[in-house]
Amino acid sequence: MKIAVLGGGHGCYAAAADLSEAGHEVRLWRRDVAALRPVIDSGSIVLKDANGTREVRIARASADMASVLDGAALVLIPSPATAQADIARTMAPHLRGGQVVFLAPGTFGSYVMAGIVRESGNRAEIAWAETGTLPYLARKHGEREVNVTVRAVRLPAGVYPARREAEAIAVIRAAYPSVHGCGNALSGALMNAGPVIHPPLMVMNAAPLQHFERWDIHNEGTQPAVRAVTDRLDRERIAVRESLGYAGPHYPLADHYNNDQWMYGDAHKKLVKSGDWRETIDLHTHRYIAEDTELGLAFLASVARWTATDAPIASGLLAIVGGFLGRDLRHGPRTLEGLGLAGLSRDALAQQLHEGA
């Protein structure tokens, strides 16, 4: 299958190498052509995992969006939600009917990006899907080298518009057999693990993050008090899903730490052992704040308000982060209020998510 991978982050390089090795024709797009140059010149990415280190050839690496998207059945975007609007504007003139765009994860980006493409004048029938996490726990080890610690074994995905769920899931499963449908885009967005794992880790490790040059929030930063808050926050997420009538499995985060039933299987010990997450984290700029808190947690808190679901942990964490950022995060661009959806009834929003705008 022809697959376009858009972005230059850890997950993008992991996806380009992994899917190429699986036999797909993969084109990798990155706007920064200088940063992409080592992959362009070599024609390959160095992939490291439990099976060792090897060069993986990819079909094309280019900063030309049109050539990368041309003929692609699947467009994979493992980039942060903060990049989605810009990517949507860049890809809008080049998308064609029948393509499937898969955000991993999405933060309700399937709805947002579809709107940007539609407003650009492109009325092609595109299926947008989003899942709850990256298909990989991965970190770059060099300018064209990526280390994959764990691959996801369960990827629940929501589709927008939901009437195209069956065809979208079939295309995505050709690349990721672990994908399964979980309903509409709102259901998919409420599977997002980042806004549950990362805000408590950032807030409750704020002092050591600012004090030490490098700190592993997933190792010494994950203590019983932090876990307790994460579990409470995740119960709020699940309560929101249940209030909307979404069926399980809800993939509770406790499974990430306690057993092998989560999206990555038994991943937490491997993540810590790799050492790749002992890093410098800026409390004001890191994606755990800019993406998972300012966008993702704000989205979750807004859906809780809209459904009248009690979510004091989500609201409290959002207030604390807003305190050190110096701004109110309750009405940001990914909240239902910011998206102009808070005034809709549940039935009206469900209809819009099923049919598309």
Summarize this structure as a short list of keywords or feature phrases:
43% helix, 12 strands, 8-stranded mixed sheet, Rossmann fold, 16 helices, 4-stranded mixed sheet
Q: Gap between N and C termini, in Å? A: 29 Å
Q: Under the CATH scheme, which architecture of the largest domain would be assigned?
A: 3-Layer(aba) Sandwich
Strand content: 15-25%
In the sheet with the most strands, the strands line up as 5-2-1-6-7-8-11-12
Q: Give helix and strand order, one letter per element, not per position.
A: EHEHEEEHEHEHEEEEHEHHHHHHHHHH
Low-confidence stretches: none
Q: What sort of overall outline do the alpha carbons produce when their principal axes are compared?
A: globular
Integer tally of domains = 2
Computed over alpha carbons, the radius of gyration is 19 Å
Question: Can you count the beta strands?
Answer: 12
Helix fraction bin: 40-55%
CATH topology of the largest domain: Rossmann fold
Biggest beta sheet summary: 8 strands, mixed
CATH homologous superfamily caption of the largest domain: NAD(P)-binding Rossmann-like Domain
